[in-house]
Amino acid sequence: MEIRGIRRECLDTLRAVGKSQHPNEFVAVLRETDGIIEEFDLAPGTVVTQQSAGFSMSMMPLGIRSAGSAHSHPNGVLSPSNADLQFFGRLGKYHFIFGPPYGKDDWRVFRRDGTPTELEVIE
Ligand SMILES: [Zn+2]
Question: Domains of the chain (ranges plus CATH)?
Answer without folding.
Answer: 5-47+63-122 (3.40.140.10)
